[in-house]
Design brief:
DNA-binding (chains A, B), 6-stranded mixed sheet, Lambda_DNA-bd_dom_sf (chains A, B), homodimer, transcription (chains A, B), DNA-binding, Rossmann fold, 3 domains, 434 Repressor (Amino-terminal Domain), transcription cis-regulatory region binding (chains A, B), alpha/beta, LacI family DNA-binding transcriptional regulator (chains A, B)
Chain lengths: 352, 352
Amino acid sequence: MKKQESPVGVKEIARRANVSIGTVDRVLNNRTGVSASTKEKILEIIKELDYQPNVIARRLASKKVLRIASLIPSSSRETGYWEAPLNGIKQAADEIRAFGVVVDHYFFNQNDKKTFTKKAKEILRTDYDGVLLAPMFEQEAQAFVAKCAEKQIPYVLINSDLKDSDRVCYIGPDLHKSGYLAAHLTKYLLPPQSAVLIVNISREMDQHHHLLVKEEGFRAYFKNHHADVNIVKTDIREPDYESIQAELKKLFRKHQFDVVFVSNSRVFTVARYFEEQKISGIKLIGYDFLPENIAYLQKNVIDFLICQKPQEQGYKGITSLYQHLVLQTAIEKEQFMPIDIITAENYQYYRN
Amino acid sequence: MKKQESPVGVKEIARRANVSIGTVDRVLNNRTGVSASTKEKILEIIKELDYQPNVIARRLASKKVLRIASLIPSSSRETGYWEAPLNGIKQAADEIRAFGVVVDHYFFNQNDKKTFTKKAKEILRTDYDGVLLAPMFEQEAQAFVAKCAEKQIPYVLINSDLKDSDRVCYIGPDLHKSGYLAAHLTKYLLPPQSAVLIVNISREMDQHHHLLVKEEGFRAYFKNHHADVNIVKTDIREPDYESIQAELKKLFRKHQFDVVFVSNSRVFTVARYFEEQKISGIKLIGYDFLPENIAYLQKNVIDFLICQKPQEQGYKGITSLYQHLVLQTAIEKEQFMPIDIITAENYQYYRN
DNA sequence: GTTAAATTCGTGTACGTACACGGAGTTTAA
DNA sequence: TTAAACTCCGTGTACGTACACGAATTTAAC
């Protein structure tokens, strides 16, 4: 409940402590060369006045630029998912460029762990002030953030989290809940006593794990609601169309499904199969706002897409780092993205 | 494709033009005291160098604070809707306070035009640098923005737009599309040949107009899809529970509905009626993330809520004004909010 | 042609902080 | 005893822009 109408600066602090602004500056940037007693006194005054450093003047005076490295998957032909986070990162970078922050981009191949470690090493060599990371490969990512911690480099995680890491924050989905919601939607579309197919498509084990969490969420819903559904599931480890087609063909011969739930953005591949086989009447639910998926949404082959603001993940990742580094404000440690439902009617208004 | 690695400043411009930085400064802030010829020369050099003023230094040097006024409805007992935009406004205000911007809040009563005009007059008297406005009362708002234009005060509109106004931008929903989506959802929930009730609840004519646009969108969907549904609608002009109860009772005696669509946030009132009358099996769709609505969502009385990020509307309104005033960047003239679907499963992750 | 007024422009200071430099005082080493 | 080293701190300049003040030049008026 203090009046803080008059913004106090270093010189007011200096006046009250009977020292020069240089000394105050030294304790603020905790540099050496101040006796313990005066340092203490100054800190006390700073606290008492609730001194807020003028970030404007600070950035103006400091000629050194802050450097942030982002390390995320490259968007491949297989999935353009990472285009969106990258755009968010770029947008944030544009906005804070004027404040003396530059962002360098590093990309790795989702199907090749070596590219990850290589880029990680490069980043460590360059001594960045902050790192934005998509920790797709758990082991390797753990090793990387350990190195960052050692070098006192703050880092933010997006898209998936790492256990026990002291990141600045995590920004991304709650996978379990996301599958749970998908199940809820499914139930709206279903007659009682119907059959559901869960399709998990991914090559790398690390990624596959995410899908299994979603699947758990999906199953949990039906369990909690004592719904009588017959759930069949398949794990497809080769994401090319031929493999998927073969697998689906086999399954569709054996079963009669009412709903198909694809646990990631590859839903368009299944949609393609539906289209080619002229399958209709089966509801299709999947993930992510990709052009391919949207096309099938428009054609009513896909019924619902679940999306978790990939672009905002990138954007928030950078701005969180910026706030941590420049403004030094406290950051929410876990920022779960909203779970958005996209249909043929609202996709035009969706912003990632 | 220019190299713009080396940020040029006024003094580089001054050097090239053979004048002092003072003169350059004069043409930058187009003040008087510069001959036409030198002014032209300087402008040319500025363009050639693609000079970007240093916003940091600019705000530091300029001791004057920018003042923004926000004029929105107070959140009443009847509806807490405006709480969210207000929070967004406050959040944005916090973030840009450090940059020398202050935001003053003005509120009016949605049921009383006089309170609007009174506050508007106050704002005009105080000479603000920018205005954020929710133009609920069309005529009065038009008069207000005309005055703003006259005084060269830029303004941003949120929640609803004004025809032919030269606002900095409009931020809010596309009402028609929003009703259209509601209809789409409805169709998922419906057996063929079913009956739908549309409920519009609002006292003031101006507000009621918004609802009618949503209703149009709702009907348009069924028309476009040649769906065979029986639509009944009612306009309730007294938002208290008793009036609504009476009207619903009358309607439910006459008809058998499968879906009820309430065109604004008052859906909780209808939900209360459902609960009290132990009506179940009828799907209920409405608007806005209010505590009352969420409560009924949890109890599965309300099935879907449509929401258009009211908090973000406030937030973006302020930051747009900030970008216009301080950074002088170009602003997207029409920023339609995404149309979000909220269910019992994802509401916890919804952020306004 | 002289003076006043108007026009056009340069200089200096300020904004709040960062940081280099160096000075005064104290301790250590020779 | 004196030089050197170290501790602690004050001063000055710089960051890029805004703006007040006043100087130089041109124009107007008689």
